[in-house]
Protein 1
Amino acid sequence: MTIKLPLSVFIIAHNEIDRIGRAIESVREWVDEVIVIDSGSTDGTMALAQTLGARAQYHGWEGYGLQKRFGEDQCRNDWVLNLDADEEVTPQLAQEIIELFSKGNPIMAGYVLRIRDLLPGEEKLVFNAHTNFVLRLYNKKEGRFSDSPVHDSVQIEAALTAMLTQPVLHRSFRSLSHAIDKMNSYTSAQADNLQIKGLKFPCLRLLTEFPMAFFKTYILRGYVLRGRRGFIYAMQYAYARFARVAKYMELRDFT
């Protein structure tokens, strides 16, 4: 019988039946529990999660930060790992985490993971795949998710963290249509959050946001090496950055 780590995995989800299976299956054999916090799926996400051995429960959507805080509260272990429904722990990372717990609880307060992107149609990581460095494995007595509705980041104060070396696979978009729908929803939430904060953007941002974001993605992130797919999703990212600024200015100046 496999000894499971004293580690809880929690995943927030909404209509993720086609993707959440990978996330659950990548961890269920070596962690104590997997918890899915569902905000009202209508596609059978909760039933699939339960079939795969997760504990699934409904919680109305409160925004990214608060939804993940609710997830933390459902975990019975102090050590928690947060995954998104479109992510998958690689076998190499699983082994690295298992080794981390091999002599008891880890010595750090938390660990930063390398979240590496796969574009639609890609099954293997390209060498220059974009990587986000995100604190996702942590002791919840030392840190909690922020309560921001749009920025879901773990806040740890006066405690040490370290970085793990192996990746999490991230399939953010099912297709370009899905990317556009997701972008529209998320940029609206970002604009609302910016209005609450009362930030000031110069009008020049309307001219510079798109080309700067395209250059950042297509050139600096290496999407230029990913062919036509890379060009398409660099354009999509650039437009999302522009839409965030434009929507905020519309709220600020015309409402």
Protein 2
Amino acid sequence: MTTTPQGVGQPGFVARHGLLTAEQREKSAEVAERIRAHDLRSVRLAVIDQHGLPRAKNLSPEAAITAMEDGLDFSGAIYSLDTGNNVFVPPFAPGGGFGIDELTGFPDVVLVPDPATFRVLPWADRAGWMLCDAYLGDGQPVPLDGRGLLRRKLAQLAESGYDFVAGLELEFYILKNHEITINPENAGFTPPPPRVSPFERGYQFLSEVRLDSMSETLDAIADALTGLGYPPRSIEDEWGPGQVEISFAPIRGIEGADAAAMIRSAIKQVCQRRGLLATFMCRPGLPDFCPSGWHLHQSLAERANGHNAFADPSAPLSKAGRAYVAGLLEHALAALPFAVPTVNGYKRFRPYSFAPDRACWGLDNRGVLVRVQGAPNDTGSHLELRSGEPAANPYLYLASSIAAGLDGMRRGLKPPPPAEPDPYAAPAPPLPGSLAEAVATLEEDLFYRTDLGDSIVDYLLLMKKSEIERYEASLAEADPADTVNEVTPWEMREYLEPY
């Protein structure tokens, strides 16, 4: 692949630091040919930030091709931004406020496109897209990057003889964009008219008539996702007005997290172009709105033969699968800031709500934290982790799950008896009732600090403590009359539109 100098990064950066395999270099050449063959006007190079949200630049086709060799200079200031887009560390502090020398002074980082993620965007005119990995100027991975963290966890899993298989099941809302007003001057959330969904009001769970009323928008979403290579396996209407659940066939490896990030962004963009707002905020503070969750289905495939390591000829779950469950339960409380990173997400955990409220497991029971779906001699046996919120960073959510499950397998842990029939009455540790409680639990935990590393844990704690402080300060100024479903105007400003 030959390129004309474009000045987008450091000449020869990728080859100099050995950042792509021979297979990836070959794929890069194929992508360059596809960019030219499609006569693209632009290519978006995106990186998923610490909140799980895409940050991107539009590049000319030739600049994008060059970036696959030279990288792309990109502002490292994004790692200093909280969920409200505020700088949450002391500006220009040594080490960027993170104790990382290379991040002093808000420097650029270098994004390297992953050619395996190249897509032509179905909803945009002659636009391509590639997901990138983030590196420091010396070629080392940015320590705060979730995609790099997940790649390291997948490598450790591979050393143990397994590949991770994810099944994505996400819930979200579709709202009338023009009826939602967020005051940027911190004056509050302007309540909309009573009907904020373009679709009928809720509590018509799995209604075919309600589903048909959404078909025009859902068909546009399905077409876009199919064009990206992720055709929805199912789409259904949920409890709330305009609430949707979407699921996909199992995906192996890092592509599961990549797909989650791409799918969320695609849905938001398709709805935006139709004058609608898609939000993955867990519990919008609007009348009749129910919480949304992200149920992460997961299993392990044996690398030697591709067999499902959780399948068993005589039981719903294998010995390895039960040890994995035990690991998820042992680390469940400390894992919550990775799976439920917002203040709002903890307002989902309620008894008898079909969301978990304690760390228990069971066979095909929707009230547990870890639900086993399978039967004897079922090659599709797998686990469903039901703690996550749709706003979770997919790389951190998957990485924390893999770490916990693998720990259970390495130590040969055994889970407690399953919580049957009523998981809300089970003698199991209660889940933290707030982000502040969850952060305090993670801060005292040694496992994730050892397994995932000090940098990522300290970074998450610093960022979330800042978020909690701003939320608690807002409570002193809040008018209780503006609060709907226990959700404050601050949460609506903070999470509704960005997520």
Protein 3
Amino acid sequence: MKRAPEFTHDVCIIGTGRVGLPLGLSLVDAGLDALGVDVDPAIRDAINAGRMPFAEPGYDALVNARRFVVHGDPAIAADCAAVVITVGTPLRNHIESDLRQIDAVLDGLAPHLRAGHLVCLRSTVAPRTTRYVARRLQRLTGLTVGEDLSLAFCPERIAEGRARIELRTLPQIIGADDETSGDAAEALFGRLAPETLRTDTVSAELVKLFNNIARYVEFAVANQFALVADTFGANIHEVRRLANHRYPRNGIAAPGLTAGTCLRKDFGMINEWNPHPDLMLAAWKMNEYVPAFLVQHLEQRMALEGRRVAVLGYSFKRDTDDVRDSLVPKLVRYIERCVPAEVRISDHNLPDPLPAAEGEPARRNHDFAAAVRGADAVFVAIDHSIYPTLVRKLAALAPDAWVVDLWNVGRIEQTFYRAHALGPANAR
């Protein structure tokens, strides 16, 4: 990307969270003059002091170099050739896209935009949102998209924990409704991605949604199979192993808690405009039911009332400190409905006390041994990479406990088993 002479910086990232910060740091690493804007002073202070505000492998040295500076005032965007918007786009309670953060960015950004600017929307959005942004920008600025301003939707498709690698290895979709905008966005993201693929904005929006929804539905099928297998007294892990063994036409995914800020909400961005029941809504219902399934089916084996229960993992997925839209708090609430004597939670990726969602009580984060010692039941809620080793210790720390291990981290290949099965004689 060759910066026009009237701009003093190449790119401004608005929203330096788990999507925007890795992008900004990677652009700096690629040789661009990039800076950030964020409304959260804690995030600004951490980054500007050379610290990552969250875990994302591969970026500690880059942020410590302090070449990527985050500002609080969007006026700095006036000096940047490109502006990339990476703020949150949650789903409201009634299957409705929440565009308040995007609207706030546009309101703050509009006075500083001028002819020649490129605006890239990177947040996951419902179909036609980029066209809404175009109309809103034109009203706020008096500039015409495709003539004065360039506008593109350039979705991120990285997985948390793999941003440094995937920003450099995944193809970048460039969604633009005019050639000028497409050229400008391709010039920017071509500095990172090994390949750029051009399309219109709606198709680009659907690409991101389809990628995530396909995974969500796949995991829902796996979770449905786990429920069916246990209902019939069968072992899902054995059935899955046999079904997948050297069979060429499909592979059944592993079951587990399926959540997170993308997979759990993206189905709604399409269903917002669809009044009919469909496969995506059924997948949502199945994945949301898994915590209840685990508690109910454990109670078919033992009563949790008055018992001591340990829950291993609290984030939304393996090896992350991100608890947004995690299903583990829901699992804990269902356990608590059984009126146990105590519930102890342990997640080595998180601080003590655990991050609390709005309306949630503050919860202790115990170390592993303190959480499981003497427990009557242990739920392996998330498949953190350290758990196959740690869970083996249950045979000594809580040998009589029932273990709920949908992820199969204990390698026992059963969803429900007694902890003494993890002893040396059964090690695999």
